[in-house]
Amino acid sequence: MAELDEKPQSAYIQHETSLVKHFSATAGSTAAIGDVAASRRCLGFRGRRCAVLTTEPFLPNPSWSAGRPAEPRETKEVRRFHESLSDYAVTPLVPLPSVAAELGLGSVVVKDESLRLGLPAFKMLGASWAVHRALGDGSRDGRRLVTATDGNHGRAVARMAALMNLPATIVVPNGVSERAVELIRDEGADVRVLDVPYDEAVRHAAALAEADPNALLVQDTSWPGYEDVPRWIVDGYATLFDEAADQAPGLGVGIDLIVVPAGVGSLAHAAVLFGRSQPDCRIVAVEPQVADCIRASLAAGGPTTVPTGETSMAGLNCGTPSYLAWPDLARGLAGAVVVDDAAAADASAELSAAGVDSGPCGAASLAALRVLAVEPARSRLGLRDDSSVMLLNTEGSTASG
Length: 401
Fold this sequence. Notes:
single chain, 401 residues, Rossmann fold, 15 helices, disordered N terminus, lyase, TrpB-like_PALP_sf, Diaminopropionate ammonia-lyase, lyase activity, TrpB-like_PALP
């Protein structure tokens, strides 16, 4: 396939570009977040390409191509930092031979993040590294951590605040279980539950941080002018992929396809960056049917905001891709696929039977593979009977209550 054309592909992209240039002058401004998101809501679905969304769950990315040159990334410092933490342990890479045999694949393994740095999800990898980079060895007197979350990220930020004896304010949107809110409060954080979607909760958290000179916004999505902390979060996620690269040869498997659950796309971003170091490795994002902002953005040819609905996959219930992640997702994803709650529940039960504890978000990767391993997606991804697939189980069953 051809590489992504560097020229704007639609009037929407031209409009988005002008907004980015305009709001770059107001770094960190909450007005920038709101106005860019508003432009996406107004313009995101006017292109004819969006009609593809109604035909099938898997959308191949027309801008993806194999054979991209590797872009070396320095991840050793990140991993050394994580290894220095008291709760660090390499998470398992678990073979699923019965799934591979059933789907006609060479191997299927799952990177099990159901227990990571003392919490039942992978998010602590990003939160810990980002806070470490942002605060370093400087004075922390009076500092406060702020973020918005639909569950696991907020708990990770709250845990980091507790470990560093700092206060934390966590903004929670609607659709998050009461148990998940309680778990964040149990970390000692000030939790503010709002009856708004995730994107609005992010804007509220950004406004809180902007109003407090001692606050550090630790958000796992980005917008023009707010990119450093989200970049460090993505860098933090590299540890799980580095571990997997070390583990795979011991199991006698490669990594031809990675299926990664996606909300705003930060973990998918880390997967794409890792995939560049692997020979002909494809990355596919999986989203809930009711919150498919990545798939819609691939179809529209630019970052697009979608309305979201209720889903058991609360951690993936996001309406807008991360500004920082989008350029790499646009070139590096082989496609995006959607699954419903029933499929995620079935996959969770199947993983449990195989000894892997998973919540709906983590199980979404297996649910997605059952779509990707059959036609027409199978041929589009080049899957064969000797292909090796890695699934990401991003959370345990206790992550969101």
